[in-house]
Predict the 3D structure of the following.
Amino acid sequence: MKDVGYGNAYIHTDDFHFHPKDKTLISAHLAFSFFALFVGTLAGVLQGLQRTGFIDLPGAIGYYQLLTIHGVYLALVFTTFFIVGFLYSGMAKTLNGTLQPVSRKVGWAGYWLMALGSVLALISILNNNASVLYTFYAPLAASPWFYVALALLIIGSWFSAWTVFHNYWRWRKENRQEVSPLFAFMSVSTMILWIIATLGVVVEVVVLLVPWAFGWVDKINVELSRTLFWYFGHPLVYFWLLPAYIWYVNIPHIIKGKIFSDALPRLTFILFILYSIPVGFHHQLMEPGISPFWKFLQVVLTMIVVIPSLMTIFSLFAAFELSGRSLGSKKRFGWIRKLPWKDVRFVAPALGMLLFIPAGAGGIINASYQMNQVVHNTLWVTGHFHLTLAASVLLTFFAISYWLVPLLARRALTRLANILGIVQAAVWSAGILLMGGSMHIVGLLGEPRRTAFTTYNDHPIVQTWEPYRVLMGTGSILLYISIVLFLAIVVYLWLFAPKTERAIEYPIGVVNEKAQKPPLILERWSLWISLTLVLILIAYAYPVVEMLAKNAPGSVPIRSW
Ligand code: HAS
Ligand code: CU1
């Protein structure tokens, strides 16, 4: 590996180039994700400005329509395409230098299914037939084709998961007694989590929503449909988070340090597989159809799933401090100054990490039964997920784009792009702090989420929300500016930056020589999957049977728009 050092026009190189066919597959995923990012943020700023009273929307499009596009295109479409493309790139880099040809074909099948689903969903929403938001809660009913589109998106992503698994199996066959590369381990864990989680939403969509929306059955069991959604909805947030926890392998390289421990991140990911699914009731704490014991049990499990994130904090600080000390820092906190604060590949995720500390604390508040009564269905929750998904995760995805796009295009991450990237990440963080921070406060003051602008007949309580609405609106404008800048930098890096053979490297850290070899049991997937299924049965079997046995009257489809 040749290190030409940061501060030159180019960052260092390890002469890794993608196989041209891998490059096309990965690029297609990234391109679609950037398209979704643009559509989703455009809808986001428009609905944000409407709900804060800054603008009136033209008659042709409504607030709930825009909010649905915003949620579906960012939370479901952008994330899935980006994550799949990114995982393919790391699998190619760390396993055999290229993806297996057959897996590439399956990867393309997945891509087209997901793209078809995404376009169909957008058409349904634009035709004003699916203003049901990204959680598509029954009894609100969309056009049946919207649900078919969602099913295509998810089933397509199963093909992508297979592509990841297949490359891992092939490598495993040739390297039976070896510990897999950390990146590949993380990708496999992420996709195992995804498959188990999406089973819930596929059952919800295919068994409950589609027949009901087509009119083949009259009524839907609302509580059961929401339960199946949140069985999926919570692990969904870790499907976003785990690729960002790539911090474990990327950040040590970028800070010129080493991976502190090879076993700890693997254990972290196993804990996520085990504990992220049987916790969905923490989104349903205020719903009447579930008895308190099962809510309590899932809240306890939620507190356990916080532990792997605490382990991540520990591991990152250890990597920072060890790297700082090896670079000569002597004072207790001197390592902070040794971090590469001029490198966007570090600065963007570092801002994400800093924001994840209050964001995670907010999550623990949400999960605490009594406090959930105060924050549930208020803008506090919207603030929470902007600080987690739209800050910690997205800032990391920005950084990944800043090295992955030039690597794919064999172009340089120029000094200018690097500086603009830092500005872009800083503007994004400022926007999120303004918007997400105000959402937290105004949520405590009682402003509900999922509502268009209203003054509630000039009610005095609503007048106390006013200053926060101004801050939220201003924050959303900053966020939009930041995305436009991000997309402009990406287009520059993809098409216009100087061509170079000494491409920017794919940052994968080396493990600290003092770290212990991870035990092979961590790769006994059948064991972890079985334990996960047992935990799911414990947490869900009885309440679901209860929901079925109660034989609730159910609801006919309702169209509220
Ligand atoms: Fe959440 C609602 C609980 C994490 C996303 N969450 C949501 C919704 C979304 C979401 C989208 O219990 C709304 C869904 C909807 O539409 O209704 N959440 C939690 C808990 C955690 C948590 C306990 N959430 C996330 C993450 C998300 C996300 C991550 C997206 C990526 N959440 C809830 C609950 C609700 C909820 C309830 C329902 C609320 C309601 O009533 O509706 C935990 O996983 C959080 C653990 C995290 C930490 C922080 C670790 C910090 C780290 C940073 C390291 C920093 C360093 C410093 C090293 C404990 C790892 C760097 C230093 C330098 C110098 C650079
Ligand atoms: Cu959750």
About this structure: The chain has one domain: 15-549.
